[in-house]
Amino acid sequence: MKTNHFFWGIFLTVLGLLFLIDNFFAVNVELDFILKLWPVILILIGLRLILKNKIALNLLVFVTAVLLSFIVYAFIFNPFHCGNVRLYRDMKKEKSETISHFYSPQIKNAKLNVEFNYGMMKINSSTKNLIDGEVQYKTGEYKFDGDLSDTSAFFFLNSEVSKKGFDIILPSKKNQNQLDLRLHQNPEWDIKILTNISDFNLDFTEIKAKDIKIESNFSSGKIKLGQPAGQSTIYVDVNFSSIDIDLPDNAAIEIITDKNFSSVDINGLEKIEKNIYRSRNFDKSKDHFVIELSSNFSSVTFH
Asked: Would you give the distance in Å from CA 207 to the centre of its chain?
């Protein structure tokens, strides 16, 4: 058998086995560790020039082919970046970030900023703490942080991907991220959410939300609103998305729409002007929602 045929046969066999095993088990090959072995390639080339024994040469070719297959596998299954371009397929080690802080009645106002992409997101009020949350991710990098004073709190989940570059996400059912956030009912919350390519369920029915801003791109989800806290403003900016918004019964509501190539279905409100809808009790109520909707190539339904 020719040496080059033997080399490629071993290389493709080992690489194929790694791919096959990966479909059933987590195979972690650290790219940094593999790259530290690069001097071995020089050693193998040197031995190839020195050794004349055929068995020794075949063993040398075998080791080289196996090492190269692990290098290729490590590059494919780890984040790879060149300049400002980052390429992800699947980060084999699932990472997570958690946040939790005990509730104090002194905290009257709280702010939450969330950036979340490529996965499933859920927010509700099922906690006795001020905030509980966990993000599990295989794509991108995420970081929870917060800042508290005597009467207020600020929490945020930021994506750590460089703003100077851009990401290419290769299709993989394994690279979906998961975000679960739980907020205490008593503080008055100011919530800002930016999400891309995600499915989300945002249940604010038991949360006092003074202001909510949601920007959704290439996503689908459901938003449930509770009763307004004074004059509450909801900003919804959706692009290439499908959103269902559940409105609270008997709440005073005004909806202002700005739609382009979108379907907007509003039930239970009166049309005041071309792009303005109101509940009958809006003018008489001090506590009300003003919902400003901007939609492009999207479908939005108010129930």
From this structure: 23
Q: pLDDT per position in the chain (303 positions), as tens?
A: 566 677 788 888 888 887 777 666 555 555 555 566 667 767 777 777 776 677 777 777 888 888 888 777 766 655 544 444 444 444 446 788 999 999 999 999 999 999 998 889 999 999 999 999 999 987 778 899 999 988 999 999 988 654 444 444 444 445 578 999 999 999 999 999 999 989 999 999 999 888 999 999 999 999 999 888 788 899 999 999 999 999 988 889 999 999 888 999 998 899 998 899 999 888 888 889 999 999 999 999 998
Q: Encoding tokens for residue 206?
A: 């038991």
SS3 annotation, the chain: CCHHHHHHHHHHHHHHHHHHHHCCCCCCCCHHHHHCCHHHHHHHHHHHHHCCCHHHHHHHHHHHHHHHHHHHHHHHCCCEEECCEEEECCCCCCEEEEEEECCCCCCCEEEEEEEEEEEEEEEECCCCCCEEEEEEECCCCEEEEEEECCCEEEEEEEECCCCCCEEEECCCHHHCEEEEEEECCCCEEEEEEEEEEEEEEEEECCCEEEEEEEEEECCEEEEEECCCCCEEEEEEEEECCEEEEECCCCCEEEEEEEEECCEEEECCCEEEECCEEECCCCCCCCCEEEEEEEEECCEEEEC
How many Cα atoms within 13 Å fall on the side-chain side of residue 287? Answer: 11
Q: Cβ–Cβ contacts within 10 Å for residue 116, how many?
A: 26
Closest C-alpha among 151, 157, 214 to residue 186: 151
Compute the Cα dihedral for 104, 109, 115, 121 and give only its sign.
positive
- The residues, ordered by sequence, that sit 6+ positions from 184 with a Cβ below 8 Å of its Cβ are 103, 110, 125, 127, 128, 129, 130, 131
